[in-house]
Here is the input.
Amino acid sequence: MTTATPEQATAPVPPRPDPVRKKRRRVDMRQYGILAALAVIIVLFQVLTGGRLLYPGNVSNLIQQNAYVLILAIGMVIVIIAGHIDLSVGSIVATVGAVAALSMNSWGLPWGAAVALSLLVGALIGAWQGFWVAFVGIPAFIVTLAGMLVFRGVALVLLTGGTISGLPRAFNSIGSGTLPSTGTPDLITLGIGALASLALVVQQLKGRADLRRLNLPRERALSFVLKTAIAVVAIMYLCYLLAYNRGTPIILIILATLVLLYSFLLSRTVFGRHVYAMGGNLYAAMMSGVKTKWVNFFIFVNMGFLAGLAGVVSTARAGSAVASAGGSFELDAIAAVFIGGAAVQGGVGTVIGAVIGGLVMGVLNQGLSILSVDAAWQQVIKGLVLLLAVAFDVYSKRRTGR
Amino acid sequence: MSNVILEMNGIVKEFNGIRALDGVSVSVERGEVHAICGENGAGKSTLMKVLSGVYAHGSFDGTITIDGEPVAYGSINDSERDGVVIIHQELALSPYLSIAENIFLGNEVQRGGVIDWNRTNLQATELLARVGLQENAATRVLELGVGKQQLVEIAKALSKEVRILILDEPTAALNDDDSAHLLGLIDQLRNQGITSIIISHKLKEIRAIADTVTVIRDGQTIESFPVKDSDDIETRIIRAMVGRPLDHQFPPRTPDIGEEKFRVEDWSVHHPIDVERVVVDRASFHVRAGEIVGFAGLMGAGRTELAMSLFGRSYGTGISGRVYKDGREIQTRTVGEAIRNGIAYVTEDRKRYGLNLIGSITVNVSAAALGKLARLGIIDRNREYAVADEYRKQMNIKTPSVSSVVGNLSGGNQQKVVLSKWIYSGPDVLILDEPTRGIDVGAKYEIYGIINEMAAQGKAVIVISSELPELIGLSDRIYTIAEGKLTGELDRAHATQEELMRYMTAARNEGAQAS
Here is the structure.
């Protein structure tokens, strides 16, 4: 029998070399399944559109047009992992867009201050909803359904039904501008790509070296090299396409930062772990000392903040604020999260998955538009893709017996 | 033979190769109140589920005859058609429906799918009068207390023209008045010719109401005898309930008991919903460093409620009392505070309160002590993995890797994960609630070893268990708890199953406060 000896049991244990067992971290097939689906969809539309999908201009457009889904999906995946839902984000986008436009055009704030104010308003709306969910105990579905109505109404009141346009150019460039360019090809974009690739390779190698040093299981060298190489090729190809258009979209920098930041938050921090623990088993999380109310509160504050950012981005992209902005954004974000492999019951999901799910939706949008498929049919197709993605997920889970 | 209404013969029921019932035979006479007794896990409830068709005919061996006719129930509907009605421990009423609607749920007074509300309410009112419940039939069930809900259940049974009424621990959740009323009602029903089978732990009740008692132990019938003929009926029942040889093996241990580590004074807890009801009543106890202290009590005695209320007030309302560690008073108002003060509680219900079943072994092991693995809120995942892997080796958790999902592990291995989690939190006081529930003998032995190890490290260990041999084998000292009160304290030398059972079945105010 092996039982704990005193010192080993209570203190963090220095890992011992264990040469006999060479375990490998299990590959998450679900994650790769979604990535494969994205690749298939890209190739499919690339063929159907005769190569037009990946025209440099189209790629730049794809990123700028779908930035809002990706930003919202990042917040939404956290909400959904924790076992909630947020139906109000589209309305928050409209309200925040109105605040941004008013603050610049009517209240005379400089664009930087307007952005800061917008993000603050988003976070405050999130705090309002988080209060009801976390501390009063009203289901998020109800709270955010109410929020959906309330903040759509607030947007209408703020804009009195009209449109505010003529926003400062610097503000608009958040949504549609690019970093300075050196011409075609843009060397700055290529440089960013090279730097990003280098950072990725260094970070991957360092992580692997850590695992080796601590004698923890590592994936096979071949698959490691292959994966890293594919990622580098993808980054460089994207940058090559952008370099032959107008350069790096500003929004791409924002998105990349968010993805890195929130992936880290969910996978590496105590906060992220608590989110997963609550979604997996709320009672067990409570009985482990997780402050579940505060975690819920912050999840909604964060969702509000990101909805505010999406409001800024989509207002900047449109160059104007209208009260009808953000219509059905919440549904796009929720769809992206579920296509990205999150579980309806909570406890499962990743930022990367949600972003890939958002890209699947984006590529569908873009591809179908290039093919001039009627908007009505686009809706039908997107709905069916969502259904099939989740059906596949349910099916594969049943097969693996959990 | 005509006087026997029900005969169950040689009933064998297995779950995954484990025999819950191993040839039980019961014979019930027409119009009697027949009590079935046994320890937790003896097989009483399983037997009643076999009888009522919850476990369909064919899923068990043995025969059931009613009025001399063999029966084969495929579902609970089949048995109810025959007038065999079971009232489960957890009441099965729909809270937002009225009493009348509940009574006739699934059995509606109807014509062509349209409910005849007048007849429904009329018949319900008659039934309520029969069970002595003075409530309007239109009252919603959620407005009733547990005792009245129990009566609604019985009215529902009567509406089905019940011949054999099975009550599974009917008074477990009731206060004294409600219990008395219910027992009176069972007596009345006997006069009306209805046969009752009641499962109960409360020997006083059995003495008061039952005609015959059958004792079951380890899935077998031990004996069956008339209550009235026996003088010291309680002693006889207890002996039959616990008279099994000690078949557990315990790892050797030399206790090294130090100073007092943990003390609780005048701890009282009220029921979270029925706030008037006292669930734990002025409990005072202490545990020394290196000591293993057992808590013995029957189901519903308040053992788990005591433990959970101490652990961050996870159960109950109106909690009062004081907690000391190493002589200093400590607070345990939230789970976080309890953990920070060095208390760990290993739940009896690991799937509900203990584990994130869709999470890996790694994230479960670290869940209660993430702070140890994090700096500035960032988790060192490599170290986390190493810690989990170390526990896998030490605890002998059988799994391909600590990245495996906990839900796929066996019960014994899941329990080892929960234990790892709480041991890693570095507690001074370790409260283990049914630490070996639902796990096989081999894993039990390993867990006993871990418990001994924790005591050897100088921790104060509290073990709550329904298995008396386990408590006697593990503990240095045992407290007994009955109806929320500590009724006795026995040291290892004096703890026998008979003695413990006597204190465990001691009713309120009857308990001898041993010291």
Q: What stands out?
A: Chain A is about 70% helix and 0% strand. Residues 67-177+270-394 of chain A form one domain.
